[in-house]
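Below sits our specimen:

——
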Amino acid sequence: MAKKKTLFECQSCGFQSPRWMGKCTSCNEWESMLELSSEQIKFLKESSSSSSTHSPLSKAKPITQIEEDNITRFTSGSTELDLVLGGGIVPGSLTLIGGSPGVGKSTLLLKIAGNLARASKKVLYVSGEESAGQIKLRANRLDANHDNLYLLPEINLSSVIAEIGNQNYELIVIDSIQTLYSEETPSAPGSVTQVRTITFDLMRIAKSLHIPIFIIGHITKDGSIAGPRVLEHMVDTVLYFEGDTNSDLRLLRGFKNRFGATNEVGIFEMNKEGLNDAKSMAGKFFNKEKLQSGSALTVIMEGSRPIIIEVQALVSESYGHAKRSSTGFDNNRLGMLLALLEKKLDLPLGTYDVFINISGGIKINDPSADLAIIAAILSSYRNRELSSESLFLGEVSLTGEIREVSALSQRLKEIETQGFLKAVIPNKPIEKTPIKCFIADEVSKVVEWM
């Protein structure tokens, strides 16, 4: 009697194994291996064999004989989204947008769909989570009603493809990829096999028909896109929404972009009219009034845009094991800065709880904020207020040296625009500036200046 063949597949990354494992050896997820049915195993074998037997032979060419693609773009009606995409929407591109529930993914794309429909472009909005009546209610609030915007509440991929073939759509929105299913794939909606198959079909449609497609993806508890990692590799652009749902500000950050840079960030405001471009960043991430002890100001670069933010620190005596916690800042880097303060300044921070918060719900990765973090910690430790007219710029090394920061001239221009008078920086600016600059090349110099 023939032995029954079994196959297990990881629901996080798509890794396959002939035996069950408690922990996936590919993505290190626990309890993610599920056994595939005999129909699913047969489907995988048939799809792999058909792709290998029917694939046409292609001949390689010297790269000098290859002609460059002329990439054209059209505006989405949102300057912030155009900035993140690299200048606008590219026809034939496949874009994946992820974010936590309620952050504004569907709201943004419905707003964009309404803008393009108003610009005489035919748009298809496919929703597998909401009915047409629910989307109509949101469209009324967003002022997205137009005859060129078509709604399709459908989860069957075959019906979606048939609708795409009936009309000459110029933009397609899929909300969301985890709700669609293909009848040809013997698996539940949202599974690794389904997501992989549907994404490949959508990519084929986008490239062959030259239609840009936006896909909304759910995220897991650790903040990554739900489904296999191959999903992010197949698409052209990956965007993530950030921001606290209790705040009006939302940040759209690019993590992959085949048609532009990934260092830009779009900033939006949530109001009664939906998710709109933030008109001004002045005062969004800092308090214009007098700073309290434990607060310091700095300027970070989000792509080509300088943003002034407020760093808040709380240092209090610990009763037991000292706690270190940070919101919007790398916790490991916070531990490094605290160890540096204990080593260089002989501060007994090992017996104190230290908490760091970045105002406005923004997450920063710019090392130029190190000096502001240290200034805020010292201000809270000494219970001494810092000047509300001064900002701190500088990356701090393990030796206590304060190193230069990039785009210093742009940062100083933003400081001048917002009406600040002083800045603590690691080196003299090349260009003349009306800002009074204090040079601090070591951590000890910051203490003397305070």
